[in-house]
Every structure is written in structure tokens, then in C-alpha cells.
# Entry
Amino acid sequence: MKILVLNGPNLNLLGTREPKIYGRETLADIEADMRSLFPEVEIDFRQSNSEADLITWIGETRGQFDGIIINPAALTHTSLGVCDALKAVADVVPAVEIHLSNTHTREEIRHKSLTAPACVGQIMGFQGFGYTLALRALVNKLKS
Ligand code: DQA
# Structure
């Protein structure tokens, strides 16, 4: 099973970025947790600050990956392009949306996700731990 894990803008700064909101785990810590949870799952873990990279990578998943876990970060609230890319492959590559923070408890602009309707489910509010929850959920979905 091959899973693509995508992280959007500013998530490269995890660890030092607003730790009260996002926690102290770095993206490398989160990646290591995911790899140790399912050693048999092939995980391709990426981060980009560029919307274009994310859209291109999502569009390349057909026939290459079984599923996507995505934290679109700020693009969650702005990017119809990321939403459309997820929808374009959703027939064969299901996606789970993940957020470190509970965006519903934050500023109103963060309450709406443009990308969630293109995903099979969403996990938020558990900081880095949520990524392993998302992986468990996606593996379970793909096996069922
Ligand atoms: C985030 C929430 C977004 O609103 C924010 O722009 C991020 C991170 C999260 O994981 O909690 O960059 O996606």
C-alpha cells in the first residue's frame, strides 16, 4: 500500500511555529511516528509552501498511490485548485484531511474548508498525533 502525505505552507516550521496551537513536534517527528505505526505501508512524505507543487503532486497520484493524507494548511481555506485536484483523482485515490489544530475554535476564516468536500474524512485538533489517526483511518478504509 502506498500513501502520499502532503503538507502545505509553513508546516516546515512546525516545532517552533506557534507551539501552543500546533505543538512542539516537528514534521520529521510526525513522519517518524507514521512510519513506525505501519512499517509495511510505503509512505511518501512531502511538504511545500507552493500551491502549484501540491496540485501537481495530487494530480500525479493516479496509478501511483492508493491514498492521500493532506494537511493543506492555509490553502484549506482558499484553494479551489487543491480541492479540484483532489476531486480529479478521488475515484481511485481517496484522501483524508488532517489539521493539527481544531480550526473551528479559531478565527472564523478558518472555519470553512474548501478542500474537505473532496476528502473521505477529516481529523483535527490532536496536534501531531492526528496524523497517525488519519493513517489508521485511511488504511482501514483501503482494506475494507
Ligand atoms: C492548519 C490550520 C490552518 O488554518 C493553518 O493555516 C495552518 C495549519 C492546522 O494543521 O491546524 O497552517 O492546517
Summary: The chain has one domain: 2-143.
